[in-house]
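Fold it.
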Amino acid sequence: MSATTKPFLPGAAVRSIRPSIAIAACAALLLAPSAAAETTVADGFASAFFVSWSYDAGGTRSIEWIGSGIIWLLLLLSVGNIGLIGNLFLVHQRRAIAPEGVVSEVRRLMSQGKFREAIELTAREGSFFSRVLHAGLGEASLGLSAIVRRVEETSDELTLRMLRRVEHLNVLGQVSPMIGLFGTVYGMILAFRSIVASGGNADPVLLAAGIGTALITTFWGLVVAIPALSAYALIRNRIDELTGEATLQAEDLLNMLRARAAAKSGGES
């Protein structure tokens, strides 16, 4: 054996591994409570925000069904609210109310005197602009005043029909805080009941259950109401703006009939 080569000693290898094992074990012991705490916090968050709990004198926890029902109802309203807002934003766009391609094509046809083709095009196309213009063109034989009156009536009717759908957001925004307030009152009743049942020395855990129900139902009521009322104002203003522009575009095109009638009467004179 060479003088520089050291013999393999199993005991020395084991002694060198022992500190590493000890360090790993200590790390596992230190991290385990942290992971458990994180799981507990996550479970507590979910329990607090999505379920209402009640506690008996022995500390046993059970679902408080009325408070939980209010929370779940508000959650359903929140989901429906999001879907309704998305649908209304998609439906009430400029391309749906006054498509630029349709406006340009109708303008081209009417400038060339092809009023019959313009009437057929607006009859096929179902946008707000086309329906308003088609209603006006249908009154062409009755004179310009009849055309303008018909355009304004049709515009008002279609606008009100759009606003009725948007009104659902207003109803959600008004009713959901009332549902949340009902949960608030109910939660406070539970809290005061626990005080009375304990003779004035209520367990803080029992008090917290009722107060938690009160606060969480208020929270979810506001979660529904704030987006609903904000979207209601935005979409309503958007409808007023776009329908007003579309009506003006229709009236501008109908002025071609006035110019054509004036030119015709001037030529005859």
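The longest helix spans residues 204-268.
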